[in-house]
Amino acid sequence: MTVTVLLEAQGLSAGYAGRPVVKDLDLSVTQGQVVVLLGPNGAGKTTTLLALAGELPALQGSVALFGGPAPAGLHRRARSGVGFVTEERSVFMEMTVEENLRVGRADAGQALELFPELRPLLRRRAGLLSGGEQQMLTLGRALARTPRLLLIDELSLGLAPLVVARLLTAVRAAADDGVGVVLVEQHVEQAMRIADHVYVMQRGAVVLSGPTAEVADRVAEIEASYLEAAGPVAS
Ligand SMILES: Nc1ncnc2c1ncn2[C@@H]1O[C@H](COP(=O)(O)OP(=O)(O)OP(=O)(O)O)[C@@H](O)[C@H]1O
């Protein structure tokens, strides 16, 4: 079986005002693969996604996309097939669900197929939806644009475990249909459940990576390393 590499970052450094925050990152995503980035606050996960999405330029190294050099800039990468779900809730709160689905190149029917829960809410203003419904709308809209690669930052921040599971199941299903996914996620165990490959970052560098089955036993260790990195808890 041929494996199609969608994204390949090599020796990638990226940061702010010319100062690298993420250093010497090697990361690849193949078709149908869910890659999860784990790590404590400030490890550089969001910065990595911004660099892969084209929002931040590579200070060093390279990003290849769909078999060629990645075009510069967020919009050109988006047009080439990269979807990006950012940390901020990105629905238009004043618009209805239906209007949100019509914005951009989303196929509303496809979004509703993915999340039938949204169908009875089509006329409701997005600002009146629950956090979980808003994220279903965000993810449904992103997937309905049929990206080849989807970058997702903290989709499940502040949501109940059942809702997180619902969202991540949809991410897994999209990958099973061929989308490549890079997912930043704080819910370690839930993320590991849908991940094919895991990267753990600390202080801007990858400290552990491998196929999920091989690193799964080290989840407790990974989580302990978060707590260590966060320092002693003040009493
Ligand atoms: N716009 C910015 N300008 C300067 N430094 C920044 C900027 N955004 C983030 N940083 C710094 O870059 C480092 C990595 O941040 P980043 O947001 O990538 O981490 P993260 O792993 O996504 O953390 P979190 O889980 O808290 O979102 C941090 O030290 C952060 O303070």
UniProtKB/TrEMBL annotation:
Which terms under GO biological process does the entry name? L-amino acid transport
- Give the InterPro entries listed for this entry: AAA+_ATPase, ABC_transporter-like_ATP-bd, ABC_transporter-like_CS, BCAA_Transport_ATP-bd_LivF, P-loop_NTPase
Q: Which UniProt keywords apply?
A: Amino-acid transport, ATP-binding, Nucleotide-binding, Transport
Q: Where is the ABC transporter domain?
A: 7-228
Return the Gene3D superfamilies for the record.
Answer: P-loop containing nucleotide triphosphate hydrolases (3.40.50.300)
Cite the SMART domains for this sequence.
Answer: AAA (SM00382)
A Pfam family name for this chain? ABC_tran
Which PANTHER family does the entry mention? Answer: HIGH-AFFINITY BRANCHED-CHAIN AMINO ACID TRANSPORT ATP-BINDING PROTEIN LIVF
Family of this protein: Belongs to the ABC transporter superfamily.
Protein name, entry field: ATP-binding cassette domain-containing protein
The organism named in the record is Nakamurella alba
Q: What is the lineage of its organism?
A: Bacteria, Bacillati, Actinomycetota, Actinomycetes, Nakamurellales
